[in-house]
Amino acid sequence: MTTSLYVPLAYITVLVTGLAIFSRVYRRRRAERKTSFESWFPRHHTRDTYISLLSSSSPVPDSLIKSSLLVRATTDVQRIWRMRDDKPAITSLHQRGLIGDDTVSRFNQAEKELEAEIVDVVQEANTFRQGWGGMIFATATEMALAEKTRDAVMCIPRIKAIEEKKLSIRRKYLPEDRLPKITQPTPVPPPHVQAQIQAMAQAQAQAQAQAQSRLRQQLTSPPKVGESSKGTSPSPSMVPSGSGSSVTNSAVGTQSNTPSKTSNKKKGKKK
Questions:
Q1: Could you give the CA distance from residue 79 to residue 112 in angstroms, rounded to a whole number?
Q2: For the whole prediction, is pTM greater than 0.85?
Q3: Helix, coil or strand: residue 3
Q4: CB distance 72 to 137 below 8 Å
Q5: Residue 170: partners with Cβ closer than 8 Å, 6 or more residues away
Q6: CB neighbour list of residue 94: distance below 8 Å, 6 or more residues apart
Q7: Which of 101-110, 147-156, 198-207, 236-245 has the lowest mean pLDDT?
Q8: What is the Cα–Cα distance from 98 to 92, expressed in whole angstroms?
Q9: What pLDDT score does 254 carry?
Q10: What is the pLDDT of residue 225?
Q11: Residue spans per domain, the chain
Q12: Quick one: CA dihedral 151, 157, 163, 169, positive or negative?
């Protein structure tokens, strides 16, 4: 009888203990899943580079540290763009029930981490120069846009090769009349540019018309009397040198003769 009682008691004890251990482990793992989410973004390598430069034992120039901080801000700007694009899709999918709460929690956690990262970058920028924190993200945005444009331009040959490959495959199975014709559209300027061009053309036409009317008035108007008399009067340069010398000599002669006559008259009166 004693053996028959110990066996079921031992069985029940082992069963309850196993269930308790399983429940405890399951709850712990579930809690860890809720608290520890997988990061929404990959590892922030630019931040690690900046921190390693700050904590390096050898002296590092300030220009290199500032450049590293600017690259870190550029990475943050790219992440802001990605979160801005992902947020509407995640919200709509969560409302439809297509994604779980853990995905939304991961996204919210990534938003909080990004906000803390932005505050940290602004504070670090202000340590180098007061007020730089308000301008660093504007510069980082320009750098991110330039990098995005460069990537798009660099992808053009690859996209062109892919499209040419598709067209070559289509030519094998489709006749030439059914192939899509690639035509480059003529560039059309925007409306405000067209208005500016028309205004400039009208202004040029008016200026030309005014210039032509002034020229016609000058050609058709008769010359004035004063201007004609002034035009006929000889200039000193037109008088020949010989005549000028004779005129001056005659003038000198007349001036020399006049005082002699007056002196003769005075002598006659005295006599």
A1: 12
A2: no
A3: helix
A4: no
A5: 179
A6: 101, 103, 104
A7: 236-245
A8: 9
A9: 42
A10: 52
A11: 42-170
A12: negative
Instruction: Give every CB contact of residue 125 below 8 A, 6+ residues apart in sequence.
Output: 69, 73, 132, 133, 136
138 φ/ψ sector (left φ>0, alpha ψ -120 to 50, else beta): alpha
Tokens at residue 40, please? 């929404």
Taking Cα atoms as reference points, which of 91, 112, 94, 137 lies closest to residue 40? 112
User: CB–CB of 136/125 below 8 Å?
Assistant: yes
pLDDT band at 149 (very low <50, low <70, confident <90, very high): very high
Q: Report helix, strand or coil for 183.
A: coil
Element (H, E) at 224: none
Question: What is the residue type of 115?
Answer: E
Give, as one character, the DSSP assignment of residue 44: -
Rounded distance between C-alpha atoms, residue 125 and residue 132, angstroms: 6
* Largest Cα span, the chain: 204
Give residue 157's identity as a one-letter amino acid code.
P
Q: What is the pLDDT of residues 215-241, one digit of tens each?
A: 888 878 765 555 444 444 444 444 344
Give the separation between CA 92 and CA 22, rounded to whole angstroms: 37
